[in-house]
Amino acid sequence: MSSAGSDASNVSVALELFRFFEEMTRLKEAKDFLSVDRYDTVRWFAELPDHPAVRSEFGEEDLDLSSRVLRVDRVDKVDPPQPPAQLVPWLTGYRRGDADSTPQLLRVREVPGTQGEEDDEGESDDAEPELYRIEDFPEIEQRNAEWIPRWQMWAEEERRNRPVRDLYAQLAKIERQVSVTPEEWDLVVGVGLLTCRSQAADDTDLAGEAAVDDVKRHVFVFPATVELDETAGTYEVSLDEALEPFRLELDMVARDLWPTRDQQETIKARIANEVGHPLERGGMLGVLDQLVTVLTDPEARLDQRVEPPSTDEITVTLTVQPSPALIFRRRPRAAKLEYFRTVIEQLTELEEQGGDLPNGLARFLGAAAHEQAVTGDTDAAEESGESSYSVDETYLPLRANDEQLRIVKSVDRKDLTVVQGPPGTGKTHTIANLLGHLLASGKRVLITAQKDQALQEVRGKLPDELRDLCVYIPPRGRGSSQLARSASVYLEKKDDHDPGRYERERSELEEMIPTLLEAKATATAGLLRARQWESRVEEVEGGYEGTPGAIAGRIASESGDYGWVLPYLADLDVDVPSNNEALEFLSLVRDPEIPEHQVEAAKRLPDGLETRFCHPDQFHNTVNAFTAATVAAEANEHLRQDPLVTHLQGHTSHQLGGIEETALKIANALRQRLAAQESWLVAAHSDLLAGNNIQWEGRATRVESALAEARQHLGRIGSSTIKSDDPTPRRFREQAEAFKAYLERGGRLRRLFRVPEPVRDAEELLAAVRVDDHPPKSPKSLEKFLAWLEVNRRIEMIRDHWPDGFPEYEENTPEEVLDWHDFKLKQLRVLIDDLRSVEIFRDQLDRLTIPQPVFDQPEKVEHYATVAQAVRSFQAVDLALRPLEELSESLGVELREADSPRALTDLFTAVNDKNPTEYRENYRRLQLLEEVRTRIERRNKLGAVLTGASPKLVQDIMEDPSEAWDIRLGAFTAAAAWCSARQWVSSPPDDSDQLRADLDDASEQLKKTRSSLIANLAWDKAMSTLTHDHLSSLTAYDQARRSVGAGTGKYAATRRRQAQRALSQCRGAISAWVAALSQLFEDMPPEPGMFDVVIIDEASQAGVEASILHYLAPTVIVIGDDKQVAPTNISVNVQDLMSLVNNYLSGIAENLRTIYTRREASFFDQAKLRSLPITLREHFRCVPEIIQFSNEQFYKPEGKSLIPLRQTGTDRLPPLPHNYVENGYRKGMLNPPEADAVVEAVYQCVNDPAYTREDSDVPEPMSMGVISLLGAAQARLIEGMLLERLGEAEYRARDLRCGTAEVFQGAERDVIFLSMVAAPTGVKEDGVTPSRYAATTDAAAGRRFNVACSRAKDQMWLFHSLEIGNLGNSNDLRLKLLQFYLNQATDPETSESTLVSEDVKEAPFDSLFEQRVHNEIVKKGYQVVPQWEIHGKRIDLAVVGAHDRLAVECDGAHYFQSQQSRQAEYERQLALERIGLRFFRILESAFYLDREEALAPLWPMLYEQGIYSRAEQAQLAVPQGTQIQSISEIQDRLDEILDLFGSGEPADRLELIREREHLRTRQDELLAAEHQTPPVQRTNRTQPSRSARRRNYRIRYETEQICNQCNLARRPTHFGDPTDPQCPESRSDCPLLKEVLDESVNPTLVHEGTSGEPDGSISDFPEFGRQPYTEWTAPSSPFPEIEETSEGTARAISGLVDIVSVEGPITGKRLYALYVRATGVQRVTRPKRSVLNRATARAVRDGLLVEDDPLNETGQATKTFRLPNQPEVVVRDLGSRGIHDLPPAEVAELMVNLDRSGSTDELFRAVLHWYELTRLTQQTEARLQQIFDRLVQPPG
User: Fold this and answer.
1) Angle between helices 951-959 and 916-949 (to 10 degrees)
2) How sure is the predictor about 1462, in pLDDT bands with cuts at 50, 70 and 90?
3) In angstroms, rounded to a whole number, what is the distance separating the alpha carbons of residues 17 and 1147?
4) Is 1246 helix (H, G, I), strand (E, B) or coil?
5) Which of 943, 1046, 1452, 1488 could pair with 553 in a Cys bridge, judged by C-beta atoms 3.0 to 4.6 Å apart?
6) Where residue 837 falls among pLDDT bands split at 50, 70, 90?
7) Computed from CA positions of residues 1559, 1560, 1563, 1569, in that sequence, does the dihedral angle turn out positive or negative?
8) Residue percentage of the chain with pLDDT more than 70
């Protein structure tokens, strides 16, 4: 295709290809909606909740682009006030927690009645309900009146808060979705709502849109971000600092209505120059007016309303109005379509001009070029795995394996390189290596992917020197890119660029490489000689002959193991105590309580303390009882002189209680009589009170009997209704009985031609009576009528039984009449029972010879109850005092004996003072003295036994009972049998340790040299290719960005727009870009050959339209995996797709064209057709057990078996737990029981400490994810349940994500929970149709399972409702996964290592030498795995720790028999060291010569690797350190350590930390010994109380000034604390401080010189005055970007310490802000805050910073940080700080020194006056009030 015709043909083919991509995009991707009503979330700013928690800039003036769009505070839901229990049954319309409900009181409440008696057949009458009326329950209305206002107040507040919570929840959901798949979602602020009634569109963009949709879309959209301020719990929405700050969207209307391109650019320029912020009041009206003018519709109009229009208000007239809204939507396809259109236009122009295709696209379309690229002699070697490259021949910044070297080689030779990267095989590492190599070659590179999450870590993998050459563009809504920082660095590098200097440096580096390679070779040869020496046979003095190992073995067999015991047990014939007895003696010697209490314990202690004297709890209860009785008696003191007291006080409490109860009952009955309204009740009450109760009881009995009979007859009627037209229906009784008898005999109602006589006799009955609306023509209905007559007769009888004056009841139904009489009967019964108590009370008083009251007035009767209660309270005081007096008497008897301990005297005093606290303390003191006496006796007894064996041993233990004795005495009996000596023999000729150190040093120097060389080449070529236009754009951008400043001011918006325009022109200056495909389409207009190389990751997720990358660059590197999730386009019709292929792709070869007809075809599939892939096989992510499933199912069958390289320790999670959900079932695409099980498991794991990493600087929660194996609905269900169960904070802390395999591709988590969802039973979405289980065997399912089962790093749970028996298809992936889980073998590495024989060879060891080394390591308490297999190779021994492992190779005589074997062993070690495995090699001769010395270097290596023995795991050993004896020497060394920390990252950081802690402990011991006080317990140090801090603020400066002048003084941890023993002079006795400390006792001390002036003058304190605020200045070179890596944390620590050294003490809020700004960023985002939190925590832990938290608040914002040598408080000028940036202690210090005689408002204004501020805002006042209340105001 070299001819002009061929070129023109290729351009034509390319045009058709991109037209195909355009149409395929329309076919595959969701159409852009015409109306915002179709978007996921739309919040109109005009309709935001009017609430203090919602703050928007909408409608404000003078806004700029840094202004927040929206801020929503968290508003917690408040539980409603609960109604009293008695009130609940009376409420109607009340729903708990529903603020919209309207609770009201029922006027009448029906209560189920009691059940009637059973008849002979076991049946009972129906219970009759009872009616309660509210008028009879006044207390209910009272309780309702008390409760309803509180409920209404809550409901009003709840209705006000609910919309805010809904808005907050929406923002939380948006933030989560954007964080998971940012490339799929778009968060924008829309302004300029364009509306018109639905109409046909001429443009093809609108083809197929629903005709019913009106046009309702915003014309201008401004990308926005949403972030959570975790400290405040506030969501903030801001405009995104994107390359393109806004977009003009017109695709919702026909293209012929659009303005021209020039008109569009004019409008965009006007926004950039005139609009400060899209929400500014009136800011966009002028732009919208101009837009309406240039639209081609002459009837288009501008509406200035900000409210959204209703559906009825939308007309056919095209209308534009501001109506700003916050919109969350799927990312529109318009940008992608526009990208293809632009390429098509460029190719069309190229075709018209007769130009050539870009090289990359030409090769992509040309078969000949393709064949040339993939054939040749070198390819066979390449694909066979052989590589002619070595690490030292390529410019790779990171270590590389063979596959990565082959990839580099392919990239250098071919235009297309395809890499298959199975899960976790280091694709990011590979890309970083490629990027370094390409940058060193001067290439312009684009790294892209379908999803952003695959790209986020690429830039961080690069060395620091190369990082600024690469810019990552996050998706919109995720913050700004690093272009701002890179632009500054580019300018600095350009200013400093000297090609000659770069060339000289490069020459020096290139000259160093051969020297370093030679040093490596020399060290390697020496190591091989040292190992060879082990195989030589030697003869030495003393008759020892053989290999060095054999000779050393003979010497070692004559040695003993317990040399420490020799000085103590010279005579082995003596009896020695047991191990337990020796350890018991040691523990008693160490007992700190014996020396403290032995003097008091020797005194006379009372016998039977616990039996003779009451327990403290009993004493406490007794005192409480006495106090309560005294209070009650005092309340009744006014009744003591009542005459009735004399009659009552002689009786028992029980008798008095009976009098009280009966009197109250009678009084209540009397009150009822007085309140009675019915005359018959008044009469009954009077008769019964007079004792005439027989008449009323008889009447009640008769009524009750009649009621029972009536209800019995009523039961015969049942539910039937009976009516009679005759007023005297009883006259029909005889007719009814006769008629009933006739019918029961079988009589008929009618005979032939005549009516029977009985029927004629009943005609009157049948005419007048109706049973259930029918004449009674059956025996059953006649029976009911007769029963009805009996009921009415009984009712008449009941009326006759009641007395005159009984109220009449309006008759309705018989049942209601009976209920009425039953109610009245109950009233009478209650009255009779109540007044019967009068006789009982009279008899009671007569028996007790107590005068009787007059029973006509309730007050007189109630007086008896009151006096009885008072007498009982008087008696209770005497009763409660009696046990206290008895206890006091017993203690007094004990104290008469001589030599009693002080605690006994104090106990006696506590009893007499009735002080439970003092009693408890002294009781415990006596118990402790008894225990100490027992311990002393036991210690003396054991000491006598041990002295008999070795007096020196007892003497040494008593003098120094150190921890070393625990191990020694624990094996004391074994050590007593040991007596031998060892001798030393010759040593090897080569020092293996030194040679290894030389090799490591040469390798490290080589790595740094090559890294420097790569950086030199990359920057030199980048600067050399920087054009004048690029330099001008960078300079313009940097100047514009700096002029923006804080982002406020009159011209801030214009300058920010200028910076953004310049920013877009800087693209060509940057060497490497990292951006998702969506960002490429939106932010980088296409240009042919705009990059030299494009790398696309996760290409199996990208569609074939990603072929456009060949247009952008001549070389493309495709990285993906066809075994992982591919594009899903199920909704696309295959026939439609084939039609497109036939219409557009006829010019492409048939074998290449077929790929485009597949719906699931990916860019990776297409690339494989043009180049054979290179497969990455080393797997780094998952523990081997987890990746085994994917390996066995998807990669091994194709000969691409993965090699697991992840190293783990023993302290790891079980890799593959599973949970069978027995009750699981399908409900549509959900399995609710399985979801419940997953949520419960996640909750348990979150609360399990095992799921928090403790080996980092700050405890780090393990990340988690939930993957549904069947649809997204289950994932969404689980997500909602987890958010509710865990809360938002924990959800974020765990980086939890719930989704399908598609969502998780490219991501990883520490722990994954798989939900299989499928179940043997269930229904479909309709809730009716049974769901059918189908086997999962297709390729798409395999890709999903592969992704799902390869995301977990440490643990992968499986939740399943299916069992193996439910799955019949052997190819079903669910069956295979279940079998995989159920067939897991036990992990041998988790079991404890045991000793093996040292004389008989055992499997799997290769030699006795290995077995003996194994035993020595195991004896130290380590876990050891013999013959550990990794990377297809075996290691002699692997020492396994909680999180890591170390390889131990035993070099003995059986190794290294040939030069080839020695070389192979060395290369094997190099390969394993590349993946991070560390080696320790031990020579056989050295081991047998002295096992301890040979293994001595191993222990610090293990400790450094974090591999600890069992003893070290329990407690890290404290180093002995330098034997420093004086306080001043210790302080000097502590200062040296601090300097070492400040100078950088010391290699021996851990040892320095341990030495520092040891020195500080020793320092405290020396100080304590000097002052005879206990040493400070540093691990339990706490902050002083608030009251102590308030007092200390007053004396802070006096003590500081005095102590700073004292040579012996040390800076106190808590200033002015007289209990702090750190000062060499006891602070309370120091004559210099005595006056100050005496004054500090008075909290209201006012110093002389206090002016009391209202303007806030300062008290005349020594040395107190305004100090200038020294501000930290950022360095000219920006700080490195904040990264979530260990290196990033270390760099952050350095920068933070630098800032604090200038501005400390400084608040965390200001500290973080200064640091972030120094990196070139303005805002502290959540990821940056997380890194800085870890950095400050680590700096505090390491002693580099001191953290103060006087307000005890959460978060770092209000905490104060300072250097250890900086004072805790310094009052300074305000400087550039805001009032909220001031450390709380500084403000408090100022407050206590200001005049506080006035109000707090005056004080706060005085503080502002001091800082030269004037405005006391509400927030400022709240902050000052908080400081005043907590730190300044005296308690009480």
Assistant:
1) 150
2) low
3) 9
4) helix
5) 1488
6) confident
7) negative
8) 79
CA distances from 1637 to 308, 1602, 1646, 1674, 1686 (A): 70, 12, 14, 42, 47
Residue with token string 């009893």: 911
Beta strand 1352-1360 pairing with 1218-1220 = parallel
Confidence of residue 1759 (pLDDT cuts 50, 70, 90): confident
CA 1745 to chain centroid, in Å, comes to: 27
Residue 1721 structure tokens:
């960023």
Confidence of residue 804 (pLDDT cuts 50, 70, 90): confident
Strand, helix or coil at 907?
Answer: helix
CB 1274 within 8 A of CB 1299: no
- Contact present, 1 and 340 (Cβ < 8 Å): no
CB 1209 within 8 A of CB 1441: yes
**pLDDT for 126 beyond 60:** no
Q: Which residue pairs, CB below 8 angstroms and at least 24 apart, start in 1788-1792?
A: 1788/1589, 1788/1590, 1788/1593, 1788/1750, 1788/1827, 1788/1828, 1788/1831, 1788/1832, 1789/1593, 1789/1596, 1791/1827, 1791/1828, 1791/1831, 1791/1832, 1792/1590, 1792/1593, 1792/1594, 1792/1832
Per-residue pLDDT at 1636 exceeds 50: no
State percent of the chain over pLDDT 90.
13
- Predicted confidence at residue 202, as pLDDT, reads 41
Q: Over the stretch 342-401, which tens digit does the pLDDT of each residue have?
A: 999 888 888 888 888 888 888 888 743 344 333 333 343 344 444 444 445 567 888 788
Q: E strands within 230-310?
A: 234-239, 247-248, 301-302
Q: Which of 527-541, 643-657, 1793-1807 has the lowest mean pLDDT?
A: 527-541
User: Do residues 1163 and 1107 make contact, with C-beta atoms less than 8 angstroms apart?
Assistant: yes
Taking the CA atoms of 1389, 1393, 1394 and 1395 in sequence, report the sign of the dihedral they define. positive
Model confidence at 1834, pLDDT cuts 50, 70, 90, reads: low
Residue 1597 has a pLDDT of 39
CA 1742 to CA 1544: how far, in whole Å?
A: 13
Q: Is 1675 exposed, middle or buried (0-12, 13-18, 19+ CB in 10 A)?
A: exposed
Average pLDDT of the chain to the nearest whole number: 78
Amino acid identity at 45 = F
Instruction: List pLDDT tens digits, range 673-729.
Output: 666 667 777 777 777 777 777 888 888 888 888 888 888 888 888 888 888 888 888
Which position has the higher pLDDT, 457 or 1775?
1775
Nearest 10 degrees: CA dihedral of 1721, 1722, 1724, 1725?
Answer: -70
Determine contact, residues 234/74, Cβ cutoff 8 Å. Answer: yes
Element (H, E) at 1188: helix 1184-1190
With 0-12 CB in 10 A as exposed, 13-18 as middle and 19+ as buried, what is 551? buried
- Look at residue 1096 and give its three-state secondary structure: strand
- In the chain, the amino acid numbered 702 is R
Give one DSSP letter per residue of 1539-1570, joined into a string: HHHHTS--TTHHHHHHHHHHHHHHHHHHHHHH
Residue type (1 letter), 1787:
V
Residues 6+ apart with CB under 8 A from 1488: 549, 551, 552, 553, 555, 556
The arithmetic mean of pLDDT across residues 1601-1630, rounded, is: 42
Chain position carrying tokens 């992990």 = 1387
Residue listed under structure tokens 């078969």? 367
Residue with tokens 């080589």: 1006
Q: How many CB atoms lie within 10 A of CB 298?
A: 6
Q: How crowded is residue 557: how many other Cβ atoms within 10 Å of its Cβ?
A: 8
Establish how many alpha carbons lie within 13 A of residue 1204's alpha carbon, considering only the half-sphere containing its beta carbon: 19
Kind plus residue range of the DSSP H or E element containing 1438:
strand 1433-1440
